[in-house]
Amino acid sequence: MFTDVRVYPERTVFASIKGDIDHHTAKSIRTQIDRTINDSDPKLLIMDFSEVTFMDSSGIGLVMGRYKLMTERGGEVIISEPAGYIKKVFQLSGIDKLTKIVSDPTGYIKEDVDTINEEEQTNEAKAY
Questions:
Q1: What is the pLDDT of residues 102-113, one digit of tens each?
Q2: Alpha-helix runs per DSSP H in 15-127
């Protein structure tokens, strides 16, 4: 599991999640995204699921927690490029009623990156 979180102009955070989202990896992803949200006070969080290979209910919790955090701050969450089965899980859980699910996030992002926060690949996914 690897997560790359970038801060863009106009208070946008882009979190690219790669690998599995399960109870072993969700805490690490959550911690990294929340730290960036607290440091940069964004109005928009884009969570990119294009390279997520597996997701269980921990992924729903991950999105719901970030949705709650962002709405408390007056912001919003966009889910970007989930695989078909992940998109279906979001629809069945009702997350698609709370957030936008988009196939291309580029219209929401300015090109100049202000800050890049990259975490090293964790071994949590290998812990089980």
A1: 999 988 887 654
A2: 26-40, 57-72, 84-93, 95-98
CB atoms near residue 104 (< 10 Å): 8
Q: What is the CA radius of gyration of the chain?
A: 13
- Interatomic CA distance for residues 24 and 110, integer angstroms: 33
Element (H, E) at 118: strand 115-118
Domains within the chain, CATH numbers bracketed: 2-120 (3.30.750.24)
Spatial distance between the Cα atoms of 72 and 52, rounded to a whole number of angstroms: 27
Question: Greatest CA span in the chain, whole angstroms?
Answer: 40
Question: Using one digit for the tens of pLDDT, what is the confidence trace for 25-48?
Answer: 999 999 999 999 999 999 999 999
> What is the arrangement of strands in the sheet containing 115-118, beginning at the earlier edge strand?
100-102, 76-80, 44-55, 12-21, 2-8, 115-118
- Residue type (1 letter), 103: S
Q: pTM here?
A: 0.83
**Which residue reads 């929401």 in tokens?**
108
Structure tokens at 82: 């989930």
d(CA 16, CA 71): 20
